[in-house]
Amino acid sequence: MKVRSLYYGTTPTMDMKWDAIQKLENDMYLQIIVGDKPVDACDHFLLKWKELGGDSITEEVTKIINGEQEPNRLINLTYLNIYLVLI
Q1: How many other CB atoms sit within 10 Å of the CB of residue 80?
Q2: At residue 19, what are phi and psi to the nearest 5 degrees?
Q3: How far is it, in rounded angstroms, from Cα 80 to Cα 25?
Q4: pLDDT tens, residue by residue, 3-12
Q5: Residue 5 phi/psi, 5° resolution?
Q6: What three-state secondary structure class fits 23?
Q7: CA distance 70 to 77
């Protein structure tokens, strides 16, 4: 299995919602690692991630990669790596 980074920029939704998504992600990882939550808590995390804008970000990045949308021209120090898993 290979994992390749496809996009390192930001999108409009990322500029607005990334801090909340990143906090949710970090909190979930920490709670699982220290044993406060079971691994299957990831199911709830994914639902919350989608609610906070994860699906919108995924759609925006997909459109940028496919040339259907211009990349965000604002420079932001927070970058998201969207990975494509190639089997």
Answers
A1: 19
A2: -60, -45
A3: 12
A4: 566 778 888 8
A5: -75, 130
A6: helix
A7: 19
